[in-house]
Amino acid sequence: MIAQPYLLFLGDAPDPLAAKVAQGIKDWNPAVAAGQLRLPGCKADMKLTDMTIDEAVAAGVKTLVIGVANRGGLISDTWKAVLKEALEKGMDIASGLHNLLRDEPELVAAAKAHGRELHDVRIPTVKYPIASGVKRKGKRCLAVGTDCSVGKMYTALAMEKEMAKRSIPCTFRATGQTGILITGGGVPLDAVIADFMAGSIEWLTPDAADDHWDLIEGQGSLFHASYSGVTLALIHGGQPDALVVCHEPTREHMRGLPDYQVPSIGAVSDLALTMAKMVNAGAKVVGISINTAAMSDEEAADYLKAVEAEYGLPTCDPFRTGVGPIVDAMMA
Amino acid sequence: MIAQPYLLFLGDAPDPLAAKVAQGIKDWNPAVAAGQLRLPGCKADMKLTDMTIDEAVAAGVKTLVIGVANRGGLISDTWKAVLKEALEKGMDIASGLHNLLRDEPELVAAAKAHGRELHDVRIPTVKYPIASGVKRKGKRCLAVGTDCSVGKMYTALAMEKEMAKRSIPCTFRATGQTGILITGGGVPLDAVIADFMAGSIEWLTPDAADDHWDLIEGQGSLFHASYSGVTLALIHGGQPDALVVCHEPTREHMRGLPDYQVPSIGAVSDLALTMAKMVNAGAKVVGISINTAAMSDEEAADYLKAVEAEYGLPTCDPFRTGVGPIVDAMMA
């Protein structure tokens, strides 16, 4: 687990979108974000207290989290100076960058000299077991998608927020870099060795109280030629009681696969349920989550209504409408 | 690729079963097996010429292949003496053991000193791409199973043999350790990083002549809670034109999963076809391959006949009856 609270490092973000990770932490786990550190020219702003490293240390910050994508795939000297200062003054560093902190000799040396941790959350640090398939206690909900990047993490986080508000015991379970940085822990599933994928999800969602829900972040799609195996491992490792199908209606083809049509919500729902029932006979699809960001208010409302009518399942946009009806259906 | 021909190292095999890898090479690629090396007490015999390291060198052997499982998960000092001699005298070593050659400092030093290669075929050495899903030229057949270890490798190898006999251009594509040692190359799929699984199979089965068949070794089962993701990556990366369903009829539960029933041949056939059609609309199930080793001749004949009648597909035991009718159906 990554020590909290965090200082969100926004670097010299060229635009707000580059600071997607920081935005995720700010939106979904604001309590851990003690402040932000921006370099000259930074175009992102989380509306947190701006802090120097010294101020962050004084405020009790434990970890500097790199909340921004780096330009050109390099950790620049400007960044390195700040990161080294953070290590020297007693903070750990956490990063989801493709360029690993551990591949930077200066940072490795500084971390070692000062007894600090470098968390590269893209790389698994746990020796996961082979999945046993044994039924576990507690309940699990998994977000499955028609495609990659259709809102599976957002949906699971929105459900956690809604359920917490209702005092239903629940835990968001991160399976990707951003989710791991938001919560402080999880499984970077796309980097797990094939044989241990399902086992890593069993490890992530262990036995729990009968009324506790794990809300598992989905990855990929059963229909995505590049990543479908990852998705199936999530279903079989997660043993979900409840599935929520996530969809983005304006996409013209599968992400990264120009020759592939996005499947229908119904096709994904049927296939995911078939797969889930192999490991949990009681699995159900409890709702549909749509990312309507590209639609007007009216288009979005019409679309949600039409999908709800077609499938007879509560259909929400977690951002526009909230996921209350999906949680209602899941708890019913 | 592993340099050929091979000297098959049988070590001090406690019984013939321990030399399964050597047996696979002897059965399926005898031309590469120049001889065998047995230590005192060895209970396995491939009926190959017994050779010392010097004799093997004189016979032109390029690689000593460890064809036997090691006892207790240790590479013993007795073994090491032979392996070091092989390196010193100019041979590479190939191994599918869990204990890696590269983790043995003496072997690493000897290989380095003499410019030889240590092939740990359990570990990928290629940086595989993310799968593109782009349709490739040539034809592909994939063995899928109701469970693990039901005869998928054996079936694909038997088909290769049968097709070679008929002068049909074809290549067996190994996806597991034994298959890789038999052919000299392949993808150790169970050890590939999740994101690159399907891509590794695209890499393994590239564009080929229109009439060429890749015969892809299957892994796991879509119904196996521990390994299903690996199987789906094989289907989506392999883009099979033809599927052969493999089954072992006497198994009481899924391998390693006492709580899970083995699915029916029909269920596997339907689901594998659904998955294959996502990436290859023309995919077909062309036959059923049964491992009847645990049955009497009469039981086996009755069983094959009954399955063939139930599914209307050529049904063979690759060992007892050969796979001729499956190849007929595939080529029709």
From TrEMBL, chains A, B:
Superkingdom is Bacteria
UniProt domain D-glutamate N-acetyltransferase-like C-terminal: residue ranges: 130-327
Matches recorded under Pfam families: DUF1611, DUF1611_N
Q: Where do the D-glutamate N-acetyltransferase-like N-terminal domain residues begin and end?
A: 50-124
What protein name applies here?
Answer: Uncharacterized conserved protein, NAD-dependent epimerase/dehydratase family
Species annotation: Albimonas donghaensis
Lineage of source species: Bacteria, Pseudomonadati, Pseudomonadota, Alphaproteobacteria, Rhodobacterales
